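Give me the fold.
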Amino acid sequence: TVYARGELQLGILVEQMRREGFEMMLSPPRVLTTIDPDSGEEMEPFEEVIIDVDAEYSGTVVSSLTNTRKGQLVEMNDSADGKTRLLFQVPSRGLLGFSSEIASATRGSAVVNHVFLENRPHLGLLESSFGKPKLVCNTSGKATSYALQSLSARGTLFVEPGDELYSGMVVGENSKSGPDVEVNAVRAKEVTNMRAAAKDDTVRLAPPMKLSLEQMIGYMAQDEVIEVTPSSIRLRKAILDSAERDRAARLRAKQIRAMKGGNK
């Protein structure tokens, strides 16, 4: 177990170990909770978050922190230069992955500062901890341009042609909501003896989205791990076998429904 203050500190430690030749697997980070000695209630840390952002993106920031991350908007002030200052109180686990998400949503205009506030009663499940639906490779081999061209219409890719892939590795983010989708990213174009009347069109792919180690730590879902080696950093499912992963997903969904029912 490694203790760290946020994704950045944890990422610096892991990157240093990687450069020294270590190999490791990182599971999703967890926030340390305590038990109130008087009531026996589970307590979690809350943080005060101050965000300065362009006024046009203030609604995006409020929606991101209050909907799925269970933050509470305490104060909102507009300035004459077109900026808005927002003050939130948010559970610490609700801030995992928030910095990179909001930087993209506000085109880098948001300045985020947060500091520990106090321990409060645990708020239960956070929707943000479920992660976004992924494109998961279902076979091993090298990624091909032919396969990635068809997959690019389904979402954002994390890999490029020639990358070594294996079953259970996350190769992209699904643009549609719902469960993860298994895809074949190593499929090659069939070769026949028929002569084509014209040359095949050149395959053009958008550059893949390359996540840093810190971004991966906040981005990965509860059923995923980060595979760190001296030569590569990959995001993959904790359970590589597809059938076992489906069984675990059904069991996890059942547990989540039970926990949601208990929180009502």
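The two ends are 33 Å apart (CA to CA).
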